[in-house]
Amino acid sequence: MSLVQWVDFQTLGDERGGLVAVEIGLDKAVPFDIKRVYYIYRTESGVSRGYHAHKKLKQIAICLAGKCRMVLDNGKHREEVWLDSPTKGLMIQDMVWREMHDFSENCVLLVLASEHYDELDYVRNYDEFMSLVSQ
Known about the structure:
Layout: E1 5-8, E2 36-41, E3 49-54, E4 59-65, E5 68-73, E6 78-83, E7 88-92, E8 97-101, E9 108-113, E10 122-123, H1 126-133
Antiparallel strand pairs: 1-7, 2-9, 3-8, 3-10, 4-7, 4-9, 5-6, 5-8
């Protein structure tokens, strides 16, 4: 089973430009209630981010501008994808290790989260992550 699950957002724009609406609900693109939204920008060249998993949190990452490379790892499989479209989101399930690399100079990465920030939900050590997913 692939770790890469894309969420396609409908483009509603016209000759004036693009417009994407993010809606939640059973028949909408986002399959969870959004409780937190944040974005990453101005990441310095050569800097990688992430290096953690979440015990319960689900996320959708959308690259609004530029691009970055995402690595997903569930303890058995490791996959890499490029995020480079404002109309495609990458669904990141709970207990998936994530790393973000190779940010372009103009990269803006938006993240929609299913829960509010909770430090206790983070698994920041890869060995601990591997121990948890092998149980």
